[in-house]
Amino acid sequence: MSHSHTDHEAHNAEAIAEIKKVTIILSVFTIIELILGFWMMSMTSVGLKLAIKGTIVILMMAKAFYIVAYFMHLKHEVKNLIMTIVVPLLLFVWFIGAFLWDGNSFRNLRNDYDSYFKEQATIKVEKKEEEPEATKHEAAESKHETVETKKETTKPEPAPYY
Amino acid sequence: MSTTTTASPNEAKLWGGGKSPFSSEYGKVMMWYFLMSDAFTFGAFLISYGTVRFSTNGWPNSNEVFRSFPFAPAGVHAPLVFVSIMTFILIVSSVTMVLAVHAGKNMDKQGVVRNMILTIIGGLAFLSCQAWEWNHLFHEGAWWGANPFLNADGTASSTNFTNFFFTITGFHGFHVFSGVVINIIMLIMTLMDKFEQRGHYLMIEKAGLYWHFVDLVWVFVFTIFYLL
User: Fold this and answer.
1) How far apart are the CA of B168 and the nearest CA of chain A, in angstroms?
2) What value does the mean pLDDT take over residues A12-36?
3) Closest CA to B140 of B85, B87, B64
4) I need a surface site. Which of A129, B117, B142, B156 has the fewest CB within 10 A?
5) How far apart, in whole angstroms, are the C-alpha atoms of residue B181 and residue B179?
6) Do B150 and A63 touch (CB under 8 A)?
7) Residue of A nearest to B11 (CA)
């Protein structure tokens, strides 16, 4: 009787230790992501930015793994159950690859054959007044008017592309 | 035909009948399947966002769009700060949910009640943050079909950015809202001793699975909209 009781206590302590470990891992990964995000703001090199974005995606997948495996307890389930959940989700590998490739190809085609689309990406809109934004909060009743005028001035004509 | 003879003893035991081959309760397995379908819904949303972003020449810089903070003086910009608070709120509420599930396994009613209350508070805090952010963006002129922000390179932006942002964070926020409602129902059932009478707290585990899924989706939404 006392033997099973101590067994139970040991198991209990183990579970709590696991929760603590995963909490720390999730927090640390999130903090690293945020540090990378702040660092990226002042960055101009496109290649380095891409590398950091890749790192952030890897950290995101790692966080997802820890949430599913430990918080949702999937790691401690029977193998059959794990497989029925994980194997269908592998479709996402194809989904992401195929659709992002498709989007990229669509952009290239439009830049090649749709001169209006390409031209739109070169016309700079003059930076709107920054300061009236602050006053807008106070002027609650004229809010909608400001919204309307701002929309008109920033967008001289409706963009006909998606 | 020879499967029964070649199967390992463990496997034969699992599939031999008389017990669940998944060693799991029916409702829990079904919750997993529901979450899988929900994952495909969110995945479809996020992949369509990625496709449209890849097919567009310019895109707004999220650090210029999401840079506000409650009670911050005008002109002070704090990109990423508010959303990191939202992220930590959701992580902490996920941890309290695990602790509630753990307490439920030990038939510890007081532990379940305490951690469920903390989880509900976390969910409500997250929803309040999101309501504030939506309200703020709306007053800046952003809504479905209206995008006051320019692309990062200063060219005119389409409304795709705001449409996707409000649709996906809205769909996620609705999941948080329904999660909070489920958690409140679980709390009431715990207080009414429903689970003590049943002899198990499996319902808390199922609600926990849903709540962790909400946290899981936020990991993706947060990274894709605010960091990438």
Assistant:
1) 17
2) 94
3) B64
4) A129
5) 5
6) no
7) A80
Question: Residue B192 has what DSSP assignment?
Answer: T
pTM (two decimals) = 0.85
Question: DSSP state, B226?
Answer: I
Domain extents in chain B: 25-227
Q: What rounded mean pLDDT belongs to chain A?
A: 82
Residues of B in Cβ contact (< 8 Å) with A19: 95, 98-99, 102
CA B210 – CA B117 distance, rounded (Å): 16
Contacts of A161 in chain B (CB under 8 A): 158
Query: If one looks up domain B25-227 in CATH, what number appears?
Result: 1.20.120.80
Helix, strand, or coil (residue B143): strand
Indicate the SS3 state at residue A140.
coil
Q: Please judge whether B220 and A64 are an interchain contact, meaning their C-beta atoms are less than 8 angstroms apart.
A: yes
Contact A77 B53 (CB under 8 A): no
Using an 8 Å CB-CB cutoff, list chain A residues near B87.
30
Judged by CB atoms closer than 8 Å, whether chains meet at B148 and A63 is answered as: no
Q: How far apart are CA B205 and CA B30, in angstroms?
A: 13
ipTM confidence: 0.89
Contact B24, B31 (CB under 8 A): no
Q: Both tokens of residue B227?
A: 């960091």
Question: pLDDT value at position A143?
Answer: 46
> Cβ contact (<8 Å) for B21 and A80?
yes
B89-144 pLDDT per residue, tens: 999 999 999 999 999 999 999 999 999 999 999 999 999 999 999 999 999 999 99
pLDDT digits (tens, 9 = 90+) for B177-221: 999 999 999 999 999 999 999 999 999 999 999 999 999 999 999
Host H or E run for residue A149: helix A143-154
**CB B219 to CB A95 under 8 A?**
no
